[in-house]
From TrEMBL:
GO biological process assignments: Gram-negative-bacterium-type cell wall biogenesis; peptidoglycan metabolic process
Name of the molecule in the record: Uncharacterized SAM-binding protein YcdF, DUF218 family
Superkingdom, taxonomy of origin: Bacteria
Pfam families noted in UniProt: DUF218
Transmembrane segments: 32-53
Domain called DUF218: residue spans: 71-197
UniProt keyword annotations, A-Z: Membrane, Transmembrane, Transmembrane helix
GO cellular component terms attached to this protein's record: plasma membrane
Cross-referenced PANTHER family: ENVELOPE BIOGENESIS FACTOR ELYC (PTHR30336:SF4), INNER MEMBRANE PROTEIN, PROBABLE PERMEASE (PTHR30336)
Region (Disordered): 1-25
Length: 227
């Protein structure tokens, strides 16, 4: 065998020795990738579970705040009980003016009075209707505009207890210089302190918590990208 044959054989031997090493490296790399992905999934689930439990505790922890007073009241539509509660606060003298945000374009004050058993005279002196907002983000924008136009600095925020965290998140993002006081409306058939016993309440909180996280992420991105 010539020296060239010897060199060729040696090269083949070296290449053959490298192949198993490369296979082991790829296998080790895939194993590390699986561990990394699994770790990220576990961390993500732990974050979500912890966030949900804090959210549920916040909702369950809201106390009756009907004695609070402010310059004005804003109620975010989503049920006649919210509006009725806000009108009751206005009539009791907790504030001088009320904004009902998110009113359907075709809804009249008379219809609101009928559905809430309230006094029509309040609408001629002390109630403003926002018909532009279609969601919580737009509620916050319209409320900020209204409050600044009227030189209000302290507002009572009326909405359902489960909706309050997201409502305050959106409002604070546009009204950081305002004093916002939560006045949650409790729903009799929803026991938020025992949410885990009722699938309907659990589902409601889970859905609202997801909306809260999406709003939080959007606001965080906007604040990060702001000049």
């Amino acid at each position: 065998m010539t020296s060239q044959d010897d060199q060729h054989t040696a090269a083949e031997g070296t290449a053959g020795a490298d192949r198993p090493m490369s296979g082991r490296s790829r296998s080790r790399g895939r194993r590390l990738l699986r561990i990394l992905v699994s770790g990220l999934l576990v961390a993500g689930l732990a974050f979500y579970a912890g966030s949900f439990l804090r959210f549920a505790a916040t909702v369950a922890g809201y106390q009756n705040n009907d004695a609070a007073r402010a310059d004005a009241i804003v109620v975010l539509t989503g049920g006649s009980e919210r509006v009725k509660h806000a009108l009751t606060l206005l009539q009791a003298g907790n504030a001088e003016r009320l904004l009902i945000s998110g009113v359907h374009p075709e809804t009249t004050p008379q219809q609101i009075v009928i559905s809430t058993a309230s006094d029509l005279s309040l609408f001629s002196c002390c109630v403003d209707l926002d018909r532009n907002a279609n969601n919580t983000l737009e509620n916050a924008s319209e409320t900020a505009k209204w409050a600044r136009e009227n030189d209000f600095s302290r507002l009572l925020v009326v909405t359902s207890a489960y909706h309050m965290p997201r409502a305050l998140l959106e409002l604070n993002s546009t009204m950081a210089d305002f004093d916002l006081v939560p006045v949650p409306v409790q729903t009799a058939e929803l026991a938020f302190d025992r949410w885990f016993e009722d699938p309907r309440t659990t589902l409601l909180l889970a859905r609202e918590h997801l909306k809260y996280l999406l709003a939080w992420a959007r606001i965080a991105v906007m604040e990060t990208s702001a000049p």
